[in-house]
Amino acid sequence: MSLPSLLLVGCGKMGGALWQGWLEEGLAPSVILDRRCEAPPAPHHVVRSPSEIPQGFKPDIIILAVKPAGMEETMASLRPVLDDTIVISMLAARTIESLRAASDGARTKIVRAMPNTPASIGKGVTGVCSTDLNEGERKLCTTLLSAVGEVAWVESEALLEALTPISGCGPAYVFLLAELLEKEALRVGLPPDTARLIARGTVAGAGALLEASPEESETLRKNVTSPNGVTAKALEAMMAPGAWPATMTRAIDAAMARAREMAS
């Protein structure tokens, strides 16, 4: 099934990953609005400014994959093509209400989507929220966003904001784990190349096992933990009062507080 006509605003890592996935799926004639993007294959077009959008081009869906600064100007510049479209916004901390206000009364349906950085290699998780869509439109948005990984719909923007410190920020926590493992490998005497290899490989391999296994993450942890063994002693330190579990709670609370500040 060919995907509908799209206007992709912003073709950086995230937008580019989405675009590549859509091309592979099959895409009706569409337009990329980006100052630095290379020309896509025909019948698609790239334009450098909204004024260059081909006359008569009417997208079914507009995807905003740019930085949130200047959102009002972006929406104003797109006003001629907004009517009777679905707008999927990936703008951080920009609510559906603010996007609707910036649309200047356009007849458009607003969707907020929050992908994380692994989406740039097709392994992301994207949180999605909208109260405007019918069942068919929701399925279409799911198909589009599935080009870069898993899609998780939530029923309110409050729940979408709750996703931010989990899936949105979560990759940074995993990268920190890899960083700390590498530093500890160096501290105990392993050479730099080996330290990097085993730290990254361990995190990547554990993630792949978690993805492939039907077991709960708690079960997988217990499976590798022999009673009173080496792993058990390490986890005893990590799970002590005030250690990892408590630190994670503080981290999530701090991230949620900051997300609320940015949205206000």
From TrEMBL:
Q: Note whether Amino-acid biosynthesis occurs among the keywords.
A: yes
Record's subcellular location: Cytoplasm
Q: What is this protein called?
A: Pyrroline-5-carboxylate reductase
List of residues binding NADP(+): 65-68
Q: Which residues form the Pyrroline-5-carboxylate reductase dimerisation domain?
A: 157-262
> Under which pathway is this protein filed?
Amino-acid biosynthesis; L-proline biosynthesis; L-proline from L-glutamate 5-semialdehyde: step 1/1
Extract the PANTHER family matched here: PYRROLINE-5-CARBOXYLATE REDUCTASE, PYRROLINE-5-CARBOXYLATE REDUCTASE 3
- What broad class of enzyme is this? oxidoreductase
According to its UniProt record, the EC number is 1.5.1.2
Role noted for this protein: Catalyzes the reduction of 1-pyrroline-5-carboxylate (PCA) to L-proline.
Entry annotated with the keyword Coiled coil: no
**NCBIfam families for the chain:** proC (TIGR00112)
Superkingdom is Bacteria
Q: What is its main location?
A: cytoplasm
Q: Which UniProt keywords apply?
A: Amino-acid biosynthesis, Cytoplasm, NADP, Oxidoreductase, Proline biosynthesis
